[in-house]
Amino acid sequence: MDPFKSKNPFGEMGNINHNPLSAEYLDQIKEMMEQYNSVLNEEFWNNIQGISNRGRKKMEGFPIELWESDEELFIQAYIPGVKDTRRIKVSFLSDKKLKIKATQKSEQPTTAKRQLASDFTDSHIERYVKLPYEVETDNYSIHTEAGIVTLIFNKIHRGVKVPFDF
Protein backbone atom coordinates (compact mmCIF):
# COMPACT_ATOMS: atom_id res chain seq x y z
CA MET A 1 0.00 0.00 0.00
CA ASP A 2 1.53 3.33 -1.09
CA PRO A 3 -0.49 6.18 0.46
CA PHE A 4 1.06 8.74 -1.89
CA LYS A 5 -0.26 7.03 -5.04
CA SER A 6 -3.62 5.92 -3.72
CA LYS A 7 -6.94 7.73 -3.94
CA ASN A 8 -7.64 6.55 -0.42
CA PRO A 9 -4.34 6.95 1.47
CA PHE A 10 -5.66 5.05 4.46
CA GLY A 11 -6.65 2.04 2.38
CA GLU A 12 -9.03 -0.21 4.18
CA MET A 13 -8.61 1.78 7.37
CA GLY A 14 -11.24 4.21 6.09
CA ASN A 15 -13.90 1.51 6.23
CA ILE A 16 -16.31 1.79 9.13
CA ASN A 17 -16.66 -1.99 9.52
CA HIS A 18 -13.18 -2.99 10.64
CA ASN A 19 -11.83 -4.90 13.57
CA PRO A 20 -9.25 -2.67 15.33
CA LEU A 21 -7.69 -5.70 17.00
CA SER A 22 -7.10 -7.73 13.85
CA ALA A 23 -3.52 -8.45 12.81
CA GLU A 24 -4.20 -7.11 9.29
CA TYR A 25 -5.48 -3.80 10.65
CA LEU A 26 -2.51 -3.42 13.02
CA ASP A 27 -0.11 -4.24 10.16
CA GLN A 28 -1.70 -1.47 8.09
CA ILE A 29 -1.25 1.00 10.95
CA LYS A 30 2.38 -0.08 11.38
CA GLU A 31 3.06 0.33 7.64
CA MET A 32 1.40 3.73 7.61
CA MET A 33 3.51 4.87 10.59
CA GLU A 34 6.72 3.64 8.94
CA GLN A 35 5.88 5.60 5.79
CA TYR A 36 5.03 8.66 7.84
CA ASN A 37 8.32 8.45 9.76
CA SER A 38 10.33 7.88 6.57
CA VAL A 39 9.07 11.17 5.12
CA LEU A 40 8.60 13.30 8.21
CA ASN A 41 11.90 12.49 9.89
CA GLU A 42 14.21 14.74 11.91
CA GLU A 43 15.85 16.13 8.77
CA PHE A 44 12.43 17.16 7.46
CA TRP A 45 11.52 19.01 10.67
CA ASN A 46 14.92 20.69 10.82
CA ASN A 47 14.62 21.92 7.24
CA ILE A 48 10.95 22.84 7.16
CA GLN A 49 11.51 26.24 8.74
CA GLY A 50 15.06 26.75 7.54
CA ILE A 51 16.61 25.84 10.85
CA SER A 52 18.94 23.15 9.62
CA ASN A 53 22.54 23.28 10.82
CA ARG A 54 23.92 22.14 7.47
CA GLY A 55 26.67 24.43 6.31
CA ARG A 56 26.45 26.54 9.45
CA LYS A 57 28.92 26.79 12.26
CA LYS A 58 27.49 25.54 15.54
CA MET A 59 27.08 28.44 17.92
CA GLU A 60 28.40 27.99 21.42
CA GLY A 61 26.66 29.93 24.18
CA PHE A 62 25.58 33.20 22.58
CA PRO A 63 26.38 35.01 19.32
CA ILE A 64 29.30 37.42 19.18
CA GLU A 65 30.97 39.79 16.75
CA LEU A 66 34.60 40.96 16.84
CA TRP A 67 35.44 44.49 15.71
CA GLU A 68 38.63 46.50 15.83
CA SER A 69 40.09 49.95 15.56
CA ASP A 70 43.79 50.76 15.37
CA GLU A 71 44.17 50.59 19.15
CA GLU A 72 41.19 48.60 20.44
CA LEU A 73 39.41 45.27 20.05
CA PHE A 74 35.63 45.18 20.51
CA ILE A 75 33.54 42.13 21.33
CA GLN A 76 29.81 42.53 20.96
CA ALA A 77 27.68 39.76 22.42
CA TYR A 78 23.94 39.32 22.17
CA ILE A 79 22.83 38.32 25.67
CA PRO A 80 19.15 39.13 26.33
CA GLY A 81 18.20 39.71 29.95
CA VAL A 82 21.53 41.20 31.00
CA LYS A 83 21.13 44.88 31.77
CA ASP A 84 23.66 45.24 34.56
CA THR A 85 27.40 44.90 33.84
CA ARG A 86 27.85 43.34 37.30
CA ARG A 87 26.18 40.23 35.88
CA ILE A 88 29.03 39.77 33.39
CA LYS A 89 32.32 38.15 34.35
CA VAL A 90 35.36 38.03 32.07
CA SER A 91 38.08 35.46 32.82
CA PHE A 92 41.32 35.48 30.87
CA LEU A 93 42.80 32.10 30.06
CA SER A 94 45.67 33.83 28.26
CA ASP A 95 46.32 37.16 26.53
CA LYS A 96 44.55 35.73 23.47
CA LYS A 97 41.73 33.66 24.99
CA LEU A 98 38.96 34.57 27.39
CA LYS A 99 35.70 33.34 28.83
CA ILE A 100 32.62 35.54 29.08
CA LYS A 101 30.07 34.41 31.66
CA ALA A 102 26.75 36.15 32.14
CA THR A 103 23.81 35.71 34.48
CA GLN A 104 20.42 36.22 32.87
CA LYS A 105 17.73 37.21 35.32
CA SER A 106 14.14 38.32 34.97
CA GLU A 107 13.35 41.73 36.36
CA GLN A 108 10.16 42.85 38.02
CA PRO A 109 8.43 45.81 36.34
CA THR A 110 8.64 48.83 38.63
CA THR A 111 4.88 49.09 39.31
CA ALA A 112 4.18 45.33 39.54
CA LYS A 113 3.31 43.93 42.95
CA ARG A 114 3.56 40.16 42.40
CA GLN A 115 4.49 37.66 39.74
CA LEU A 116 1.71 35.36 38.53
CA ALA A 117 3.67 33.10 36.16
CA SER A 118 7.05 32.93 34.44
CA ASP A 119 8.75 30.91 31.73
CA PHE A 120 11.99 32.85 32.27
CA THR A 121 14.81 31.05 33.97
CA ASP A 122 17.58 32.66 35.91
CA SER A 123 20.51 31.07 34.16
CA HIS A 124 24.23 31.30 33.63
CA ILE A 125 25.56 31.20 30.10
CA GLU A 126 29.14 31.35 28.95
CA ARG A 127 31.27 31.48 25.85
CA TYR A 128 34.97 31.01 25.20
CA VAL A 129 36.45 33.48 22.73
CA LYS A 130 39.75 33.12 20.93
CA LEU A 131 41.13 36.57 20.15
CA PRO A 132 43.07 37.40 16.98
CA TYR A 133 45.86 39.03 19.02
CA GLU A 134 46.89 39.86 22.57
CA VAL A 135 44.95 42.42 24.61
CA GLU A 136 45.50 44.10 27.95
CA THR A 137 43.87 41.85 30.53
CA ASP A 138 43.82 44.37 33.37
CA ASN A 139 42.31 47.35 31.56
CA TYR A 140 39.00 46.91 29.71
CA SER A 141 35.44 48.22 29.82
CA ILE A 142 31.97 46.66 29.56
CA HIS A 143 28.77 48.35 28.38
CA THR A 144 25.24 46.98 27.89
CA GLU A 145 22.38 48.33 25.82
CA ALA A 146 19.25 46.55 24.53
CA GLY A 147 20.63 43.04 25.04
CA ILE A 148 23.98 43.86 23.40
CA VAL A 149 27.02 43.60 25.66
CA THR A 150 30.10 45.43 24.38
CA LEU A 151 33.55 44.68 25.78
CA ILE A 152 36.40 47.01 24.79
CA PHE A 153 40.03 45.93 25.13
CA ASN A 154 43.29 47.75 24.39
CA LYS A 155 45.48 45.91 21.90
CA ILE A 156 49.02 44.94 22.85
CA HIS A 157 51.43 45.95 20.10
CA ARG A 158 54.50 43.77 20.11
CA GLY A 159 57.25 44.11 17.63
CA VAL A 160 60.53 45.70 16.96
CA LYS A 161 60.56 49.32 15.90
CA VAL A 162 63.29 50.02 13.41
CA PRO A 163 64.57 53.61 13.43
CA PHE A 164 64.68 55.25 10.03
CA ASP A 165 67.43 57.76 10.77
CA PHE A 166 70.31 56.32 8.77
UniProtKB/TrEMBL annotation:
<feature type="domain" description="SHSP">
    <location>
        <begin position="55"/>
        <end position="166"/>
    </location>
</feature>
<dbReference type="InterPro" id="IPR002068">
    <property type="entry name" value="A-crystallin/Hsp20_dom"/>
</dbReference>
<comment type="similarity">
    <text>Belongs to the small heat shock protein (HSP20) family.</text>
</comment>
<protein>
    <recommendedName>
        <fullName>SHSP domain-containing protein</fullName>
    </recommendedName>
</protein>
<dbReference type="InterPro" id="IPR008978">
    <property type="entry name" value="HSP20-like_chaperone"/>
</dbReference>
